[in-house]
Amino acid sequence: MVETRKANYHFTVKGNQPTLLKEIKLFFEDRQQPDYIEIAPPDHGRIEIRKIWTTDQLSNYLDFPHVGQAFVIERHSTNKKTGKQSCETAYGITSQSTKHADAKSILATNRAHWCIENSCHYIIDWNYDEDRSRIRSGYGPENITRFRRFATGILIKVKGAASIAQKMRKLSFNVRAVFDCLKMTGNSCTAR
């Protein structure tokens, strides 16, 4: 995708890539001043400060294709009611070079990723319990995920229910409503 379509990736590196994580952690061990600091508005009862450090010095060193930059993000959060503070550190890589993405844009991309994670993946995991799926061989996991995303996309368009879970329950007991929702019959009516 990076070569043929000129697409870019942005990954958070976690424990499932132990060598990659170890190498990025080692590089950023003695980090100095951050490349960018973002102070988020005090929404959701907390104050958040995000700091990011980036480097392109690992691009040719890391055993991962098309690395343009590696980064580390620190999230400092303070609960406004209790005063409790927390700090999370996330490591990552992107195929975007320093010429195409500065620290601010990498941080923005990282935040946008969590919007997707929280909306789409959360809905799928909560309603289909996808994280505990036992489908593991061949194209099964990929195919069932596509079916679930397709179904969720259709359910989002169904009117008259407050949540995806409520829509699923409503349609599971009414086959006609499913066909109407999919507009699969000549005399389809609006799903109720």
What does this structure look like?
By secondary structure, the protein is α+β, with helices and mostly antiparallel strands. It folds into two domains: 10-101, no CATH class; 133-181, no CATH class. Helices cover 36% and strands 20% of the residues. The protein is built from five helices and five strands; from the N terminus they run E-H-E-E-E-E-H-H-H-H. It has helices spanning 18-27, 103-128, 140-157, 164-172, 175-181, and strands at 10-13, 36-39, 46-55, 69-79, 85-94. It has a five-stranded antiparallel β-sheet, with helices on both faces. The protein starts with 9 loop residues before the first strand and ends in an 11-residue tail after the last helix. The model has no long low-confidence stretch (mean pLDDT 84).
Order of strands across the main sheet: 1-5-4-3-2
Biggest β-sheet strands, sense, barrel: 5 strands, antiparallel
Oligomeric description of these chains: single chain
Number of helices: 5
Supply the number of structural domains.
2
State the share of residues found in helices, binned by percent. Answer: 25-40%
Q: Could you say which structural class the secondary elements and strand pairing correspond to? A: alpha+beta
Which whole number gives the mean pLDDT?
Answer: 84
Shape: globular
Rg, alpha carbons: 22 Å
How much β-strand is present in the residues?
A: 15-25%
Which H/E pattern describes the elements? EHEEEEHHHH
Instruction: Kindly report how far apart the N and C termini lie.
Output: 42 Å
What's the count of strands?
A: 5
The low-pLDDT segments are none
